[in-house]
Amino acid sequence: MKTIGIIGGGQLGRMMTKAAKKLGFNVTILDPGENSPAGQVADKQIIGSWNDPVAIREIVTQCDVTTYDLEHINTDALIELAEQGHTIHPDPRVLKIIQDKYTQKSRLQECGVDIPAFVKQDEGDTQAFYDFGFPLVQKTRTGGYDGKGVLVIKSEEDLEKALPGPCMLEKMVDLKMELGVMVSRSLTGEIVTYPVTEMTFDDRSNILDLCIVPGRISEELTEKAQKLAHDTMEAFGGVGIFGVELFVDKNGDLSVNEVAPRPHNSGHYTIEACVTSQYEQHIRAVAGLPLGSSLQARPSVMYNLMGEPEEEGIPFVAGLKEILELPEVSLHMYGKKETRPFRKMGHITVTADTVDKAVEVTEKVKSIVKIIAES
């Protein structure tokens, strides 16, 4: 029985592990936290940092194929191991490009993929803001996630809040909506694209709140979004599943916001709604198996369960019994031992006969369920 190694033991690794076990693989996790969400369901967990070359060598040499559930890892160590003949997917050279937002956008630009205008900003270069022009979005080149490392700068008055370190500046899109598309690529170059997700965000945290699938958009925009995701995957050429986040501006024009070379929050819905979940698809791809069908069986809405503001401690799901009485609801808790404000603690997927019905039930769920700390 082959062993798949996953660098990162969070909720994405947890759901990847479950998918791998379903297909008959053993799974080893590398994560610094004992009893990590993925480690709870894997065959083995190595306790170590994602940036420690010794720990990375340990998991890669113990496994038949290694993948990851986050971008912020030691790519140099992975590249060295890949060059020595170890199987790592997606290719760590692709990961190295994507984990730096500036080099990510540069690759997309080189390949003719539509993106907002952008420039590199060296650390401390205040003149770059004036040269580029307001309003703009400043992004740290590495390390940002879930709205961290992203700052909207509308005018000179906002410069006192500017982010430190090497950054990039990006044109502020006159935004109508945001979309997401999961897209997978096999070892043989086959590409499978999933339905288009309509994404809404929590204004307090800038973290994804709802995913509505299929998105409430025209057939023409759906086709354009799926083609843009397909072209994005071709631009990077990785193996596995990628999450492609898209902007739609007020004119209806599409551009790529960001790319994640792994399963993505916006693809959680696929567990209940699609023939092949994003997690199984990723495992199939990296293990060299045929890709599965991305067909969506029922409309769905995914809702992120985050820790309530001001709540910190052992998590308690308030309203659990009430939401589980609703037949359309599927609950996924991540096994995290502590809740914190806006920490992702789980998610809920609602499936229904229509998108409108799924949205209606989700709004009811949102009014009931809360992740609080045990008193």
Task: Summarize the structure in words.
The protein is of the alpha+beta class and 375 residues long. The protein has three domains: 86 residues, Rossmann fold, CATH 3.40.50.20; 55 residues, 2-Layer Sandwich (Dna Ligase, domain 1), CATH 3.30.1490.20; 199 residues, ATP-grasp fold, B domain (D-amino Acid Aminotransferase, Chain A, domain 1, 2-Layer Sandwich). Helix content is 28%, strand content 29%. The chain has eleven helices and 18 strands. Strand 9 and strand 10 form a beta hairpin. Helix 3 runs antiparallel to helix 4.
Summarize this structure as a short list of keywords or feature phrases.
375 residues; alpha+beta; Rossmann fold; Dna Ligase, domain 1; D-amino Acid Aminotransferase, Chain A, domain 1; 8-stranded antiparallel beta sheet; 4-stranded parallel beta sheet; 11 helices; 28% helix; 29% strand
